[in-house]
Amino acid sequence: MKNAELKSRKDAATPRGVGVMCDFYAERAENAELWDVEGRRFIDFAAGIAVCNTGHRHPKILAAIRDQLDHFTHTAYQIVPYASYVELAEKLNARAPGDHPKKTAFFTTGAEAVENAIKIARAATGRPGVIAFTGGFHGRTLMGMALTGKVAPYKIGFGPFPSDVFHAPFPNPLHGVTTADSLKAIEFLFKADIDPKRVAAIIFEPVQGEGGFYPAPAEFVRALRKLCNEHGILLIADEVQTGFARTGKLFAMNHYDVVPDLMTVAKSLAGGMPLSGVIGRAEIMDAAAPGGLGGTYAGNPLAVAAAHAVLDIIDEEKLCERATLLGDRVKAKLVSLQSEVPQIADVRGPGGMVAVEFCKAGGSEPDAEFTKRVQTLALERGLLLLVCGVYSNVVRFLFPLTIQETVFDEAMAILESVIKDSVAVAA
Ligand SMILES: Cc1ncc(COP(=O)(O)O)c(C=O)c1O
């Protein structure tokens, strides 16, 4: 079947709210490459939105899923439990930041992990309030939307949202927001909107993902921890996009000398299978009453089997080191282009969580048009890139960390050519 035919059937059968970026349809994928139904090949720097850090169809993940298929595919963990769930919880408890006792509960999507982290924080503190940040993205469920700090397209037409959610500006020096500004805004929330004694949690992304790949400054994360300690507030790190070697460490929080009380994980946890989790201090995780957490598919055995394989692959193939090595190469390429491309306003990101921000030549006004051109040209030349940022002026690079050298070099050559050609069009 051809792409054009599928597109017209899609338009007739599925709602436009499920926005689709590409006009071609996947037929198969292998590591960092993907082929459409017409046989066209693409290099996949989207990795299913940060899900395939271990690449498409890693043989170890396939073997783990096949083995699980031969045993059982679903019992509902809350009805008939299985060892692999418990063992995965043990592994994550041991590897998440902090040497205190931890517990982990599994869910299916990132948004569900976020929802449950808030439920757990409220149950543990007996408080309703949550503070999140502008530019943050936490999912498309009602609480996920309420916490998300970006209106279009996520919140349009979907309110009212759960109450007692407040936003403070996320530090972003490039756009004139310092750490001091952010902290002052939180103090102001405590004066103007909510008594800190009514705040259950502060939730933040160690590196904002959808919001534009802005890393949280170390002094900001330290200050959040201090603020939480002072007021009995829980600190939640949303590691849904940053986790599992993407930033050059297993978790982005490993870059900070701060330990969160709760952490949400998903995406690359199970290398393409739907699985998420909340990892946290044991006594906090136990605050919810039995039956309060879970879900029919939560901790699906096929996804759990895949996650065990993912953790092994990260260790065996040294994917944290590889994330940093490859991320540094993307950054070096972009920095080398900076003298010829005045639109490159910033190149940033830890490990392999790299982004380039485009602004109007030489200034600080976001250039969404230039960014779109880079993305479109790249797609035409067979490289799948994702755009992010509140102003849609950031290209993020989410290559599988297992990508072959030759494929990576090919992608770098395409990237260079499309950025240079976009300047020529802009001139
Ligand atoms: C930081 C963060 N939190 C939560 C989510 C929501 O995850 P999901 O789309 O699996 O519900 C995302 C998705 O992009 C995310 O990046």
From TrEMBL:
The cofactors it requires, by name, are: pyridoxal 5'-phosphate
- Give the matching PROSITE patterns: AA_TRANSFER_CLASS_3 (PS00600)
- Any one Gene Ontology BP term: gamma-aminobutyric acid metabolic process
Q: Give any Pfam family that matches.
A: Aminotran_3
Q: Which UniProt keywords apply?
A: Aminotransferase, Pyridoxal phosphate, Transferase
Picking any one GO molecular function of the record gives: pyridoxal phosphate binding
Q: Does the keyword Transferase apply?
A: yes
Q: Which family does the record assign? A: Belongs to the class-III pyridoxal-phosphate-dependent aminotransferase family.
The protein in question is named 4-aminobutyrate transaminase
